[in-house]
Design brief:
With about 190 residues, this protein is α/β, with parallel strands linked by helices. It is globular and about 45 Å long. The chain has 7 helices and 5 strands. It has a single domain, classed as 3-Layer(aba) Sandwich (Rossmann fold), CATH 3.40.50. Strand 4, helix 5 and strand 5 form a beta-alpha-beta unit. Helix content is about 50%, strand content about 10%. Helix 1 runs parallel beside helix 2, helix 1 packs across helix 6 and helix 4 packs parallel to helix 5. A 5-stranded parallel beta sheet has the order 3-2-1-4-5, sandwiched between helices.
Length: about 190
């Protein structure tokens, strides 16, 4: 299977690779994360993924669009209860933004399927990610491959630490960064 694998960061991507390879799937990695803030965080995560890709001998496509303003505009346009409310859909918008770009690229480039390292994190909403992936399957005519990679999360983090990869401290968006410092999760 020719799989395009959206990656949010090196540690989460590393958590998925052994499982995918056990299925005889050698993914092509894709970086597209315009939600990550600030730019220094965006760059650290992007560069960490590039190091992982090189170490694992995997092709990496980088769509290098730091899109804080686009992300904030999308959140503001689509959140009924304000941009800071996770329940209002901020995470859903973030997932869709990244997965839609992945599905569109996968469709244009002739991939059989697409997936995401977001599925490695115990902090992400798998039900929402899966639903969006299935909707995008219909729209772009490329299969969404759902896998629950969460059992490999800690293992991936340990591998990333061992490789000296950058280890982030929050989800990535400006709102999760605020929550990191204030302790006020929405």
């Amino acid at each position: 299977m020719k799989l395009l694998f959206h990656c949010c960061c090196g540690p989460c991507a590393s958590a998925c690779l052994a499982s995918l390879r056990a299925e005889n799937t050698e993914p092509e990695l894709l970086w597209y994360n315009p939600n990550i803030h600030p730019y220094t965080e965006y760059k650290s995560r992007r560069d960490s993924l590039a190091r992982l890709g090189a170490a694992e001998n995997l092709k990496l496509t980088v769509i290098d669009e730091y899109g804080l303003r686009v992300f904030i505009r999308e959140i503001g346009n689509n959140s009924e209860n304000g941009p800071q409310s996770r329940d209002a859909g901020r995470c859903r918008i973030c997932y869709r933004l990244r997965l839609e770009q992945t599905a569109a690229y996968a469709s244009r480039q002739g991939f059989d399927a697409f997936s995401s390292s977001l599925l490695a994190s115990p902090y992400q909403r798998h039900d929402v990610i899966r639903k969006i992936g299935e909707e995008l399957t219909e729209q772009y005519h490329v299969a969404f491959m759902y896998r629950d990679f969460r059992p490999h999360f800690r293992e991936g983090q340990a591998q990333a630490r061992g490789m000296g990869l950058y280890m982030q401290k929050y989800c990535g968006c400006i709102f999760s960064e605020e929550e990191r410092y204030t302790g006020n999760g929405a």
